[in-house]
Amino acid sequence: MNVLNLENKTRSIVKTLGNFSVLEYKRDASVSSYNAVTEYFMAEMGVRRRQVVINMTGSNSAILQAGAMQWTAGNINLATDVKGVGDFMGKVLKSAVTKESVIKPKYSGNGILVLEPTYKHIILKDVSQWETGLVIEDGMFLASDDTVNQSVSARKNVSSAVLGGEGLFNLLLRGKGVVALESNVPEDELIEVELENDELRIDGNMAVCWSGGLSFTVEKASKSLIGSAASGEGFVNVYRGTGKVLMSPITSSESLSQATNNVSAKGDKRYEKSFG
To answer: Residue 4 domain-assigned?
Structure first.
């Protein structure tokens, strides 16, 4: 089996880790007169379509977020990762608290697996490099090797969720393999902070992912409420222990949020021929 023209002058593989690759559209030619100008300036600003391409060798399997598959080539088989009624109910509960899909399809076989395009940035991470696991923000999971174990990471206390602007639960990834994450912020702009029995304080929910062994709490910026009020900071998110934190230098802008989530940013579907 040969797949031709997957890469050309308008799109190319920009990153590969394990069996996962990121195909990026440098210029989207599948546009109409109604959205050509928008697409042009989006590409100039780095807001481009990206797809995850997974090489299926026969010895590996991939877990996808529901609805993420666009096309496959070769002898690719689909199954669910549900092992029974009890397992299904557990996945329903995990889905409710982490905002991930209840059932994630599992693909295996020989060939190629291509995911739906997205305007978000794709981050590929080797989970084994995070010794205590990798905790990710809600909705970031796109795909992973089947060897990556998924569980729920709970906050140390309710105040960490209420005061910190975060959810009470997050998806925790452990084991060996690659995970593909969707991010509003490009990976090369993320700041990585390595902690060694230390702490990191962040004003706002700018942490994208962090080590599972870190303790997360929400505390006053100052030891007193008056001091916090005077400083203008109020409450801050605090990560303590040994591990790593990936954080955005700034919060996601409204324009990026629209480009990645708003259908209108892709043009009128009645006239465009681009993916969708």
So the answer is: no
pTM across the whole model? 0.80
Whether 88 shows a pLDDT value over 50: the answer reads no
The total of structural domains in the chain comes to 1
Q: What angle do CA 201, 205, 208 make, to 5 degrees?
A: 95
Instruction: Please state, in angstroms and rounded to a whole number, the distance separating the CA atoms of residues 69 and 141.
Output: 14
Q: Does the residue 276 lie in any domain?
A: no
Helix or strand holding residue 162 (H, E): helix 158-162
pLDDT higher than threshold 50 for residue 13:
yes
Residue 157 phi/psi, 5-degree rounding, is -155, 160
Which residue, among 200, 217, 146, 210, has the nearest Cα to 177 in the 3D structure? Answer: 146
Would the pLDDT of 262 be above 50?
A: no
* The two three-digit tokens of residue 35, written as one number: 């959205």
